[in-house]
Batch of 4 targets.
Target 1
Amino acid sequence: MKKVLTLSLLAIAVTSTAASATSINIRHEWKPEYGDKNDQAHADRIAVSHRFKSGIGFEVEAKYKTNNNDAWGDQSGNGNQANISYRWKINDTFSLTPQFKLEANSDKVGYQGNLTLGYKATDTISTSIRYRYHYENYKSSLDKANSHYNRITLAAGYSGIEDWKFGLSTDYTIKQEGEEVWNGDKQGISEINSKISYTGFGGGWAPFVEIGVQPADKNMAGDNDKDDWRPRYRVGIVYSY
């Protein structure tokens, strides 16, 4: 985790003198208790991203979690990730962005390649579709089979109200290996998320709120709850310069 924080600070130092878009994203996540398990969960993450005028971009992210019911109590590392991408602006309407992501925690390393097609319908309405392939390699001491999945994300954004931005996205996951996604199947909708951001403070600051739902974890929820939707709440702030 110290290495990720060092990389984050280095990224800030490098991009502070570069001409283009840099952002720092700090976010807190809360999952309330669900089913008959005492599984309330809090997690935090900080991400630093930058995109050069050439279209090349990168992001590094450090994640943390709490091991009790307090929002910031008994914290420990929850993994890290880094990605690199290239945004190709086809024209004023379409863009294409390939990306490679590396994600790791104490138990596994994940490798992900994805491709996003963006469509700008108007100055205030945008949509995108993203395909990603993810492979997870578990450490041998766990004696757990590696897993992989395909995922498609549909997203839409609206910024037609002054100082406000709205977003909605849906993930559809197809698992070749690993646990079921929904109702006994290895494929199905794995997440629905909504986001509201406020940009009226100026100076590059934009607080946001996210409300999402996911299928209940099959290992944590009771048998009567495992195919219900579980809520998830996030709050955070983005600083762009």
Target 2
Amino acid sequence: MLKPYLLRVVLKVLLDKGFFFVSQNGSHAKYRCHHNPSLTVIIPIHGKEIQYGTFRSILRQAKLNEDDFRKK
């Protein structure tokens, strides 16, 4: 089983990559890229960890790769 990622680490990397908070609806937060406003990422705020499948979905939405998160 793959290790889940910590929510705070995912948010920190997104903020470092130029994303900013837009809004929150219930337990899902919306972040948009400062450099490319068409890039929108929805982050589930359901606890301290994000499961690997959800993490991969966030990567696809943000057009990032896993190496960006391994450095943190």
Target 3
Amino acid sequence: MGLGRGLDALLGEEPAQGATGIALRDIEPNPRQPRTYFDDAALAELAESIRQNGVITPITVRKTGQTYQIIAGERRWRASRLAGLDEIPAVVLDVDEQTAYVLALVENLQREDLNPIEEAEGYERLMEELSLTQEGVAERVGRSRPAVANALRLLAMPETLRDLVVDGTLSSGHARALLPISDVERMYKAAQTVIERELSVRDTERLVKRLREEQEEKPAPVRGDAIYIEDLQRTLSQATGRKVTIHHGKKRGKMTIEYYGNEDLDVLCTAIRKLKH
């Protein structure tokens, strides 16, 4: 049985079992379902389509005692319940729990029905369930090894950023670009900047590079230095009438004075010249 080729391969090898109508109440979702996020609006649209056209593609299940457990097609099953159907066409497979789980993983990954985090978790589970390398997983699901490796990198993200990827607020490319930021709070703030400014992945990489350089320039916090810098910022702000920001690094520093337009710059220059006397 070629698990790596998904359900199509399995059904091709066992064509004797056709689709049959099974009562929705007798079908249960798989608690180990790889897909954990179901969009309510998309489900409602599918339910309306099912009301009009019925379920075109049967779901796949396995017998578990007096009921059936879904292998593939939970979204169609959920939408059929919303549509008010009593039964759904299903193909029943005679497979054990682990085989059903692997088939569900492979099917979801091959159909690209998962969000980036679910996809990454799917690869990780395949590696654990079948003791596969990244190369082995890539062969099973028809992906390149770099694609699998890049997906798995997302699992290093904190939960707050994973949620942004799951709901589509942050793309997987942007998320990977943020990974070099070691501090979780700084990473989340950077993600908010990316979202608010609608930065490209390349611009996000530049932002991360700048943030890391600023972090490396920061010395170990010394309370005396911090108080001195704060006082100096306050003094210069009062003297110039502008916001002054000082970044004090180990080897070098940077001072920023804000101004607004050419006339304001002239006024600022005059104020600075007065400071010399």
Target 4
Amino acid sequence: MPGDLSWPSTDIWDRLNDTLDGRLIKTVPIASVCHHPNYDEVKCKHLRENWRRSDLHMDHPTSIMHNIYLKKACDPFTSPDTPCDIGSYVQYTVNVSKPDHVKKAVNFAKEHNLRFVIKNTGHDYMGKSTGIGALSVWMHHLQDMEYIEKYDSPHYSGPSFKLGAGITGAQISRKAKEYGLVVVSGSCSTVGIVGGYIQGGGHSTLSSVYGLAADQALSFEVIAPTGEFLIASPTENSDLYWALSGGGGGTYGIVWSVTVKAFPDTKVTTASISFGIDSAPNEEAFYEGIKAYYASSSRFGTAKLSGFAVHSGERFDLMPLFAYNQSSDDVEEIISPLIDTLGSLGITYTKAVATYPNFVDAFFSTPSLQPEVQEVSAFLLGSRILPASLFPSEISQDQIENEGLDKLMLILKDIANKKGVILDILVKADSTAYANPSEWNAVHPAWRNGLHSLAVAMFFENEEGLEVISRDQDLITYDFVDQLRQLTPGSGAYLNEAAPNEPDFQQTFYGTNYNKLLRIKDKYDPYQMLYGSTSVGGDRWFENESDGRRLCQVTKNSKSKKRSFISSIEL
């Protein structure tokens, strides 16, 4: 840690920089212009006004988008007289351009007993992209995209793309369009496809047709924490390939590239539906309208539709559904029972159905999905994968008789009454992506039976204090999500969009795969260089608050306590 006698001297850091072709960057927090002695009123004002722009943090070597994990260190919204402490920012980062940079960085961290972190875009809800006292590798400028017309292997034959670690979903979607193809990529277009997204499973608007992002991985190039450059595929280092395909990012190695499947582009139809509580006859009818959406979801999943729904105690927005290779008439027929039900409830709604010639045009027809305008939302999360068995097969069935759906609606109403917002992802991950998906990759088995990845969010202002933020996160984790856990025993959650203080993260994020993943981690990361509080093996470590938040190994004498949100951001 900085301040220790064993912390590398400036001369040692300089010598490291020489071996890295001058690519070592000493952290200067992005908001240093808002604090003395570097205070600049004009620059600070610009930073505050643009603080929620994704590209602001994506293009900075050490800033992260979900900046609660910086724990208000050098915050642009505090007084200029407040010291600009580095806090949970990494101390140094390497702007890597070749594998040797990663090897030298990880070897240096190992030699000097430094914490080691991987950052790509910084789009990370779980705090893995930063760490107190750490040396980081910044992967964002690895921008290679190679089209492979015919990838040929025993497990797949067809078009593919080899992607450098810095490629985002928006970039590969637009590149694939040039070849008349699509690639499974994230709903947030600023997500780096090669990092935590594909390694964590990764849902997509194409998942109901082609499966999860992890189902697309054909091979990885990866630098193990031992310094070895490895290929991981179904036939080479197959255990590492299995773990990287859904077992969590930043855990088993530093991924340099991934080769993924590509599929023919076709027309895509979208459908949006919105209504508010003020456009319903009463509150009961409003919630019956929301219930009708969930009662329709099995029908949507069977028809291979995916989409997003956002709702609170005031309004519902389906924004939108995506129907791959289906016409407007097809989609109108699919959604007609929902529309009929809304009408019978006396709800005034808006509806828009449109067909686009290709996937990119359809996806970016929703303004909030465009990377140029996509913002970092200041919210707290918890989530649960809801199994398909919870929902009726058709909305025409008597909803009152569906006990699971009734229980879900009581939970959703309780969440809304406590100012929570639901961010629902409708995704039926197509298990035909492999003959036996659970054997080929490490995604949580709950995905294969799931229909919704339902997230619960609470929003906060930039100026909000950590005490209020912590209180709200604990409300999400130990109240909202706990109700969903009781409703869905044996299920899990998407490990990239979940509560950072999830009490049983081993089961919730990894399920029956956890012990196998732990053995693979120990094989490829024997020195335990790669850490995340909810990563495989993360329960072996804790932040020692009495020793400068140093990362220490858990022993039999370590105190066990409830995972509060404040402790989970002690990074």
